[in-house]
Recover the amino acids of this structure.
């Protein structure tokens, strides 16, 4: 109490000044319409800015939930595209009884760990066996191809991305529907290589590379990248094509895991026919 009294004594002039200023402002506010209006306008402006700031903060912290909803919606939309269904055309009746059965389902997941500047890169996602994730399932992003699942635990999965020397995917030149193989020769995470496309097909800078659909894990038409340059390898009859990858691996946050409902059937049929390589 004694300390409080000492503080009041020390700042008594300041306190008196503040009290007098408050009284003066109150009198001005009550007796002058113009000043009253100005004070109200200032108060409203401050309140408005405060509400806007508060709303912005709430919107920012709500982005995570909104992103999750958006990716779930995108997964549902992807499952509705034509490439996700198998087409049965039955002519047993007088009219064509055409039905569709879904091949591909999509599971959303968040990237929790990712490398893109190493010799052998990997991606870890925040879903695993409990969510139906299994090895050999393909992984894509909103921008295009990411890679394939190589290992799972109950709640997590590890993906071998395109940026890995052991990664191989069947792709095609969209303009000519010519198939080739996507590989990564190391170095720049922005680029990869497409091989096995014959030199009898013309390659243009900027041509689009997509998945071919020959890999059961991936539907046809997933974006892979665009042609950066094409080199005719002498004596081979094939191009060595450098492409700009569409997926930005250094900014990877959300992915879709592709589940092929017919994967086991497609895998078992060649074994049943004793076909070792197909």
């Amino acid at each position: 109490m004694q300390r409080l009294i000492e503080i009041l004594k020390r700042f008594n002039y300041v306190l008196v000044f503040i009290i007098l200023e408050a009284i003066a402002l109150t009198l001005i506010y009550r007796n002058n319409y113009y000043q009253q209006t100005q004070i109200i306008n200032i108060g409203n402006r401050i309140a408005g800015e405060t509400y806007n700031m508060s709303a912005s903060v709430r919107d920012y912290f709500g982005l995570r939930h909104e992103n999750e909803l958006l990716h779930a919606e995108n997964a549902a939309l992807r499952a509705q595209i034509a490439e996700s269904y198998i087409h049965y055309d039955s002519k047993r009746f007088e009219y064509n009884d055409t039905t569709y059965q879904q091949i591909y389902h999509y599971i959303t997941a968040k990237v929790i760990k990712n490398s893109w500047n190493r010799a052998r890169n990997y991606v870890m996602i925040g879903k695993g066996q409990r969510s139906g994730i299994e090895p050999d399932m393909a992984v894509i992003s909103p921008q295009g191809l990411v890679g394939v699942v190589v290992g799972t635990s109950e709640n997590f999965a590890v993906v071998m991305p395109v940026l890995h020397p052991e990664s191989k995917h069947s792709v095609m030149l969209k303009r000519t529907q010519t198939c080739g193989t996507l590989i990564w020769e190391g170095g720049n995470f922005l680029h990869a290589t497409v091989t096995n496309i014959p030199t009898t097909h013309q390659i243009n800078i900027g041509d689009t590379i997509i998945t071919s659909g020959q890999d059961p894990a991936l539907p046809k038409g997933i974006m892979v990248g665009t042609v950066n340059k094409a080199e005719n390898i002498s004596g081979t009859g094939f191009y060595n094509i450098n492409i700009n990858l569409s997926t930005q691996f250094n900014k990877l946050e959300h992915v879709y895991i592709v589940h092929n409902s017919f994967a086991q059937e497609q895998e078992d049929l060649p074994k049943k026919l004793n076909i070792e390589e197909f």
